[in-house]
Design a protein that fits this description.
- Helix content is 71%, strand content 6%.
- The protein is mainly alpha-helical.
- The chain has one domain: Methane Monooxygenase Hydroxylase, Chain G, domain 1, CATH 1.20.58.
- It is elongated.
- Keywords: Bacterial flagellum biogenesis, Cell projection, Cilium, Coiled coil, Flagellum.
Amino acid sequence: MSTEVQKRMTEELNLLQQLVDLAVAKKEALFENDLEALRKIVDDEEKALAKAEGLRPLNVGEIGDSTEGQRLRQEKAALIARLKEINLLNQQLLEDALAIVDYSLRLIHGAEESNMYGASGKVETVGNRSLLNWRG
């Protein structure tokens, strides 16, 4: 493996590690509900992804089957797997947060129709029941 290819692989690994670090920071910002930190992390991710798009892809033949090439490929695969794992968790955290916001908005504004148990013990459809009195 040439020094140019090794340098290029190292650059890819550093970029992947940076993305993993940003994903971990995003997870922490989501847990802490820190919107300002989240905004900065997303900006940093966009810059890192733009840099990644500018990299020329390496062919498998360029890396070769040397022990160093295999080690670099394994390290790259491990970083990608870790990044996917963290991003999946972040996606679930965002979906949970959106579900809570949606529930809160429906609770405040009232649902169009709600099925509730009536005095008879049967489900009755009731109209718009808002938590707030919007009529004044």
